[in-house]
Amino acid sequence: MKKSIILALLIVVIVVGWLLSGLWQGSDQLPVSQGTGSGVATSAEPPQASLPRVRVRSITAERTPQEIILLGTTEAKRKVSLRAQTKGVVKKILVRRGESVKQGEVLVMLAPDDRLARLREAKALLEQRQIEFEAATSLSKKNLRSQIALSEAGALLNAAKANLERIRVDIDRTEIRAPFDGVVDQRLWSLVIT
Questions:
Q1: For residues 79 and 102, what is the distance between their CA atoms, to the nearest angstrom?
Q2: CA angle 166, 90, 194 (to 5 degrees)
Q3: Three-class SS of residue 127?
Q4: Within a 10 A sphere around the Cβ of 160, how many other Cβ atoms?
Q5: What pLDDT does residue 153 have?
């Protein structure tokens, strides 16, 4: 036979013999006494050998706070550098660094300068051009005014409307607004001298 088979059989015989040796030990074991759970044995016989002492403690489940510490950096999803779309002097800064802003919220106001006076002037001119156009239309219907004069009055009326709209847009641009919800990261406002 091969050496490996003989060695395997020898190991099996030793293991089986060791397991069976536990059955032949008889009277040298201590009897087990039934307890009431109070820690005091109910049998009147004193123990034959000194048993190890055991401490018992009742434990209940408790929540353990878990903490995870992560190191890293954050980056903004969107960034924008805001600039005034019109000329002017910064009148009022309404936000501070680190402040949350909502979309459309006014961040900086520029001084209106003469824009309000120009708005009143444009409204008056529009009113005048409207009256001139209505008069030219009335005279043109009676054939007292040429078609060219009517077209000219219409063009002047449209120019007055465009001028009024341009001034309104310029006034609206004196308020720099947040284009989306976010947080003010840097304040780089400065006075503009023109």
A1: 14
A2: 70
A3: helix
A4: 21
A5: 94
CB 112 within 8 A of CB 171: yes
pLDDT lower than 50: segments of the chain: 27, 192-194
Tell me the CA end-to-end span of the chain in Å, nearest whole number. 110
Q: Return the structure tokens found at 32.
A: 């087990």
- Is the sign of the CA dihedral 90, 96, 98, 100 positive or negative? negative
The Cα 130–Cα 136 span in angstroms is 10
Long-range CB pairs of 96-101, under 8 A, 24+ apart, other chains included: 96/184, 96/187, 97/184, 97/185, 97/186, 97/187, 98/183, 98/184, 99/183, 99/184, 100/181, 100/182, 100/183, 101/178, 101/181, 101/182, 101/183, 101/184
Both tokens of 125, joined, read 């001119």
List the beta bridge partners of residue 183: 100
Domains of the chain: 82-111+175-194 (2.40.50.100), 117-173 (1.10.287)
120 within 8 A of 167, measured Cβ to Cβ: no
Phi and psi at residue 8, to the nearest 5°: -65, -45
- What was the pLDDT predicted at 194? 47
